[in-house]
Amino acid sequence: MAADTGFSFGEVMIHEEQILARAAEIGKAISEEFANEEVLVVGILKGAVLWLSDVIKHIDLDVHIDFMAVSSYGASTKSSGVVRIVKDLDTSIEGKNVIIVEDIVDSGVTLNYLKSYLLGMGPKSLRICALLDKPAGRRAEIDVDYVGFTVDDRFIVGYGLDYNQRYRNLPYITCLI
Ligand code: IMP
Ligand code: MG
Asked: Considering the entire predicted model, what is its pTM?
């Protein structure tokens, strides 16, 4: 049993070594796409923190980072569909190559909203990099440029992903069952 949540953990779906290897590949791909340019990596708090730190170590460019926080699920495994910015950017993104880093794309509502919000600020380019993609949950159309792994329609925890703020520290991806 996963503490007192009423759920149990499923099997380990993605091991830390796999995540680190994928982060290196994506960091290299970003370095190639933006060769000789600067990038501003915008992490979406809190879930993207572990993945962001892995990816940026492999971006061989001038990298700046910033963070945003948006409203989350709360104590539920289903999205409310409402997006609220809780913490906005500290820096201007105008004319910059922006890469949004997110933990998981589920319905796509969050990234769809963030993408149009950030595009309104005139970046030079805007890419999306997500640790996980859960296409079964999709309700809003969104192109994810860099995907770590595609997962089935399960409630995922670990490696930054939480259930009611718990389990972000697990060094692997698992699910609640
Ligand atoms: P979306 O707006 O439905 O795409 O969901 C975005 C946010 O919901 C993600 O950034 C996560 O914080 C959260 N989320 C979606 N699916 C899961 C999951 O399986 N486990 C944990 N959090 C999730
Ligand atoms: Mg979350």
From this structure: 0.95
* Interhelix angle 16-33/49-56, nearest 10 degrees: 60
Q: 177 C-alpha vs ligand 1 centroid, how far in Å?
A: 16
CB of 110 sitting under 6 A from ligand 1 = yes
pLDDT averaged over consecutive 10-residue blocks of the chain (177 residues)?
84 98 99 98 98 98 98 57 89 98 96 96 98 97 98 98 97 98
Residue 48 CA: nearest ligand 1 atom is: 10
Any atom of ligand 1 within 6 Å of the Cβ of 107? yes
Q: How far, in Å, CA of 59 to CA of 15, rounded?
A: 22
Q: What is the DSSP letter of 130?
A: E
- Phi first, then psi, for residue 111 (nearest 5°) are -70, -35
174 lines ligand 1 (CB under 6 A): no
